[in-house]
Recover the amino acids of this structure.
């Protein structure tokens, strides 16, 4: 009887595979695991490329491209590490051409292309990794921008219990992305929602709403008119903020409204924030791309800034090519005796830094002490 | 004076490009446009691969792989079409290996790999393309599944004006994904939120909430235990539905609760729906993977099904390898005199069909006539 049962099961599994296989058709070899993260924090990368002559990997934790080894089946592989817990970018280089890892569906989709991501966990989850705390919600909107005459995307994070605490009004952080990004990047790669969940769960901040708008506008996409944020400012103030205040229970008090951003978004933050001191009480500029604009003009009234702002926070990595512009800006703040917090830290122009900055910046916000 | 002004501008632009270029570093050639969709609905695909000997494209609207042409710089290209307005999958094949288009950030991320997507617009937006109607919101949740002991993802669509009509309770559709998918696919590729926006805006349906849960469970991922949906059923009924009913203003009436899904999700829909007639009033199964389970057992009480269900809707494409199983199921429904709507249509096992089915199914729901 047992034999018959096994035979029936075999026939069933054979038929199942036959029937279901079209569902998998055309999707490469599912048996190749890449990246494979080992328990000791080493990582193995694999790529099937039998005809390639040279395959390398460019991965953020290695100084230069690392050559991969080919087996007789044409499967190239390399094991690297152990490395520190972090989210790292990588890409394969096949005979000189960048190729995304076909076995890894997690990519950082940039405006024109993509890099794969690999996440390394330590013994305990890091500040940007999901912990055993209550989780908030990320909301994806499309809104009609009257000021720009187009329909645009907008992401909003609400804290845990937002949906059930129906009488609470929350403070709100407007969080801006970089030149190569769109409105999903602060969650997809920046993990703003998880960082906020962990800070709230760990009682390091009060619950807050985070609004992540789309930073490009019809006349300023990419390098075009870089440094002119008039359209963005108009959309943010006349469309995004009213939309958020209509849809969400957010406080209308400027002491409950902050703005921050990275790179291009840092430049937008300083321009829009310092030009609208009646709207924003807290400003944070991460690795800002301070070019194409007279920023001293924004600092023309030091006394007013000191009076109106609760916090002006500037951060930049020592290995960032934008460090010079940020240092100049900080010197101007010092010269004009404008109160601020400046943080020149380790790191380059990259997401690992911006996740850390956000984790440091949020707990400083909305304090009344 | 004009000359000097131009020179200053040139210097500025040169410096700007120099300063900002690190923001673009490592992201391939931004000057390659691929795919380029022309106004006449032809499409040009391009790939820089100077060392490749043969580059082809596999694109859904062409019968077989199409050979691309190489120019002296090693840029391969091909122009195809004109084609009907639709979202098409494609992938490059470089010397026999599938390679995603590095110039196109829109990919359908499958469990183990990705295919690029290209969207063709007609003169008017199609039913799955953004129209001039009010837009709803897509909400991304992480919830603790007590029944599975893990934290899982969940997408929820709410209709336009949900946030402001604070006294309305909405009917709700539970919409399940396929074997290769995760919980974001019904929005990212299926465009469920846009289809719903357009149907609501066009008065073809009343506003509804759509809940898109994650369909894999710890003991049934992929082919493992395919056909055993016990864990999924437990999570849906004991965790997902209570979570939604706590967070959202949805009607608790079963005449306001529908379930549908595609492929694996279609099989889950039939199993969970027909086993829980006290919970669901409307059932829709799209291209269902009816294997590994005695479905006639679910049809053991025809009278009860006819009494309890408002609608049982079955659809499958003529070119789908799962057509046989669906035809058998429909024959059983006929034999047992169970009321249903069956739709055998043009099409294969693919998203263009499932978008059409959803667009046809939603307007049938929640009617009281």
């Amino acid at each position: 009887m047992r034999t018959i049962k096994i035979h029936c099961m075999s026939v069933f599994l054979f038929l199942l595979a036959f029937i279901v296989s079209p569902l998998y058709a055309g999707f490469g070899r599912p048996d190749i695991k890449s990246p494979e993260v080992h328990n000791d924090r080493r990582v193995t990368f694999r790529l099937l490329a039998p005809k390639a002559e040279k395959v390398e990997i460019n991965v953020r934790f290695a100084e230069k491209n690392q050559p991969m080894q080919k087996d007789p089946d044409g499967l190239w592989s390399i094991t690297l590490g152990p490395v520190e817990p972090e989210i790292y970018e990588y890409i394969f280089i096949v005979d000189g051409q960048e190729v995304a890892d076909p076995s890894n569906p997690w990519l950082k989709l940039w405006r024109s292309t993509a890099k794969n991501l690999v996440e390394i966990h330590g013994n305990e989850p890091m500040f940007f990794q999901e912990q055993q705390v209550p989780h908030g919600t990320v909301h994806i909107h499309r809104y009609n921008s009257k000021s720009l005459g187009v329909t645009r995307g907008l992401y909003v994070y609400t804290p845990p219990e937002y949906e059930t605490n129906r009488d609470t009004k929350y403070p709100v952080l407007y969080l801006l992305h970089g030149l190569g990004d769109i409105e999903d990047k602060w969650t997809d790669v920046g993990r703003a929602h998880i960082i906020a969940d962990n800070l709230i769960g760990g009682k390091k901040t009060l619950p807050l709403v985070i609004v992540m708008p789309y930073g490009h506008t019809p006349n300023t996409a990419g390098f075009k008119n870089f440094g002119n944020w008039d359209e963005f400012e108009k959309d943010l103030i006349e469309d995004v903020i009213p939309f958020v205040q209509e849809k969400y229970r957010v406080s209308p008090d400027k002491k409950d409204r902050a703005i921050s951003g990275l790179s291009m978004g840092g430049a937008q933050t300083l321009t829009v924030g310092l030009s609208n001191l009646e709207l924003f009480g807290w400003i944070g500029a991460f690795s800002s791309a301070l070019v194409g604009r007279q920023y001293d003009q924004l600092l023309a009234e030091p006394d007013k800034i000191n009076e109106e702002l609760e916090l002006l926070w500037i951060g930049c990595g020592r290995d960032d090519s934008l460090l010079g512009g940020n240092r100049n800006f900080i010197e101007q703040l010092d010269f004009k005796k404008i109160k601020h917090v400046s943080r020149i830290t380790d790191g380059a122009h990259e997401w690992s830094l911006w996740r850390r900055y956000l984790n440091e910046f949020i707990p400083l916000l909305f304090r009344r002490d």
In short: Confidence is low (pLDDT under 50) at residues 1-29 of chain B. The radius of gyration of chain B is 24 Å. Chain B touches chain A through 71 residues (CB under 8 Å).
